[in-house]
């Protein structure tokens, strides 16, 4: 690519010199995971699916939801694969009530308060509206 840039530069003049001196892919190689803002809507949606998977796997009477995402990576692989380091906390909502997690506050009762540190990988295929939590370690 650099050789092509220099060839174009030599035939078109100096107005491409700034482009040719740029690092074209500073974040790494295509297909490799890259850091993404933990507040990105896709990250938040992946974290919610992770919390819902956790709720489906526990016998806890209360629901858990994501409380903090400390690190998020995304990789483009036939969709998007999100890799998250996150915390999930016990809410005051009971599973039998089937509440919406957005409406659930975290436990304030000291004896019921519980938090887990988790690593999760969520594969998202947006055009199929498919979410799959492939790894969840808490």
TrEMBL record:
One of its GO terms (cellular component) is extracellular space. Keywords: Disulfide bond. One of its GO terms (biological process) is positive regulation of myelination. InterPro entries: Cystatin-F (IPR042886), Cystatin_dom (IPR000010), Cystatin_sf (IPR046350). Pfam families: Cystatin. The keyword DNA damage does not apply. Residues 28-138 form the Cystatin domain. One of its GO terms (molecular function) is cysteine-type endopeptidase inhibitor activity. This is Cystatin F. It comes from Mustela putorius furo.
């Amino acid at each position: 690519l650099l050789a092509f840039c220099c060839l174009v530069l030599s035939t078109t003049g100096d107005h491409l010199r700034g482009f040719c001196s740029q690092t074209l892919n500073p974040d790494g190689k295509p297909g490799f995971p890259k850091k993404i803002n933990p507040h990105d809507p896709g990250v938040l949606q992946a974290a919610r699916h992770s919390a819902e998977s956790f709720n489906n796997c526990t016998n806890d009477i209360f629901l858990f939801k994501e409380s903090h995402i400390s690190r998020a990576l995304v990789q483009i692989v036939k969709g998007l694969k999100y890799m998250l380091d996150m915390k999930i906390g016990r809410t005051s909502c009971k599973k039998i009530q089937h509440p919406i997690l957005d409406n659930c506050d975290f436990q304030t009762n000291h004896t019921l308060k519980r938090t887990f540190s988790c690593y999760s990988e969520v594969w998202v295929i947006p055009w199929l509206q498919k979410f799959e939590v492939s790894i969840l370690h808490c």
